[in-house]
Amino acid sequence: MRRSLDALVTHVATALMGADAASAREISEQVLGDVAGYFAVDASFLRRNDHAIRATRLVAEWPVRSADEAPDPLKLVHFADADPVFAAMEDFSEPTFIRPGPETSEYQRHIRVSRSVTATSVAAVPLRSGDVTTGALGFVKFGDRSWGELEVSALQAIASLFAQLHARIEAEERLRHVADHDELTGLYNRRALFREIDRRLSSDRDECIPILFLDLDRFKSINDYLGHAVGDEFLRVFAERLREQATAGDLVARLGGDEFVILPGRPMTTSGAYAEATRIRRAVREYVSVGGEQVIRTVSMGVALAAPGTATTTSLMRRADTAARTAKQAGGDSVTVLSAEMSAEADFRSDVEMHLPAAIAHDELLLHYQPEADLRTGRILAVEALVRWQHPGRGLLPPGEFVGIAESMNLAGALGDWVLHRACRDFSGWRAAGAPADVVLRVNVSPAQLVSTRIVGTVEAVLTEYSLPGAALCLEITEHVVVRDLDSIRYTLRSLQALGVHLAIDDFGTGASVLSHLKHLPVDVLKIDQGFVRNLGRNAADLAIVRAIISLAAGFGHEIVAEGVETSIAATMLLELGCHRAQGFLLYPPVPEDEMRALLVGGGDRQGDEPELPMERFRA
Ligand code: C2E
Ligand code: CA
Ligand code: CA
């Protein structure tokens, strides 16, 4: 049964309502086919006006052009050199009808030639948005066709539905544009750039992705001397120049300030990327006239490359940034490709960043333990857990190589939890096997673990899980953290102390200003920094500092531990100063779990009341 005109319009409305930017073309083609079928015409088309370039562009057509047909010469038609019918599409507001006769339209000629028909009639209906003609909807009949009044109003209704769809898609595109572009220059923004690098780095192609990082030399002086309006204008012109220099397919982005990035669309070798950067560096170094001044700025460029799967977006960007900074430090107006040394360091960091989360999850970490002993008796008083990473490719890594990176990646919590669990598990094992009950377990915590109170729950749960009294555990916090974050961590420290857990200030003496806060802090132990202890007996200043720290600790009732005791002279001095708790290579180095267990449990001959081996070592 034949639909009524109303039903046809309703059908079109429903179909177009479901369209978005991605599906618009396909749905439009379908609708064009349905409408053409209804009116028994041979072809139909939908065109959109691009007023910015004064042209009309084909958006959809029916029948759909197959891939092996010649490219459509009428895909984009500029009004200025169009035939009268196309020219009229720029701003026509009423439907136009062409009947067979002398060819008045390029379209008629095109149809005649391409479809081998002699006579055509065309109905073109404007798409309007307010007073603007945004496009045209057209129907072509091979031969003659006239349109009834009701048919024409149906066509107009359908055209207005298409106009609405256009407006909707345009709004969508504008929104997307705003989200992905830099407001000042119209270039892509950081977000869009990072997304594209993410995509390229996760491809499975074996190719090198280059990043060209540009940093304007002495841009600040333009802002300072000529004002921000001139600075902005300069950035706009500079961005335009960059865009001109970019090759099709390149992504040009402004990161912010005077930093820009070009992500070339094609893979490159290192030397190819260097050559490209050099070309751009030369091309952008030209006078710009802004605010009545002729201004010239050179650029420092950094180049970094990575193959998919070998770097993260952040690490690749950081390498390019580092390279640009090196170019700048060398005087600017130059290109630096990351040197082997610089990239080895950056590679190490990205390697750590990429593998650390899995290393924590898969137990690639391990703990060594270093005893703390009584210098008078040699008795082990405490044990400090020190984390290491058995890296599959790089061997045993010390904490200095990865703890900082873990913190910068928000992994401090995961790392800290792992250490707490493992240390308490080992420790409760030793206790069960006969280790003295008064030995304390010391665990280092990162500042990031203390700014939230999450750690309180973790510690409580771990103590319960391994049936440990709170007093058996001491958490160590480095002094500069205590100073910097005092207010935000005070509450956490108090809650930990409420569990009976002890707190130590590590590396004491390096953060100095904590002295004044000391009496307000819930702290039990001070660990004198290795730097002061190592040269005791050789350095009078260190001796004075250590003496001051010891008397201060006594004043507050804190326990004091000397770290980094390497020589017997240092040990002797400490004893004379009244500090008998010590940790250091002279006594014990950090050892694996089984050795630590043997020291605490094994034989009993190492762990008695008598002065022991380590003491004898430095008494001799
Ligand atoms: P720290 O807490 O001050 O730990 C003492 C460091 O000094 C250890 O280095 C230890 O091996 C070393 N050491 C011990 N005795 C001597 C000595 O007589 N002479 C010298 N020169 N060094 C000695 P390590 O294991 O490389 O740890 C370095 C730092 O990493 C630690 O310093 C601590 O701040 C941090 N760290 C270790 N484990 C963890 C952990 O599980 N979590 C967190 N957040 N940090 C940790
Ligand atoms: Ca420590
Ligand atoms: Ca320390």
TrEMBL record:
CDD domains: EAL, GGDEF
One family name in Pfam for this protein: GGDEF
Residue ranges of every copy of the GGDEF domain listed in the record: 207-340
Entries under PROSITE patterns matching the protein: EAL (PS50883), GGDEF (PS50887)
Domain EAL: 349-604
Source organism superkingdom: Bacteria
Alphabetical list of SMART domains matching this protein: EAL, GAF, GGDEF
Gene3D superfamilies from the UniProt entry: 3.30.450.40, 3.30.70.270, EAL domain
Protein name from the UniProt record: EAL domain-containing protein
Organism for this UniProt entry: Tomitella fengzijianii
Lineage: Bacteria, Bacillati, Actinomycetota, Actinomycetes, Mycobacteriales
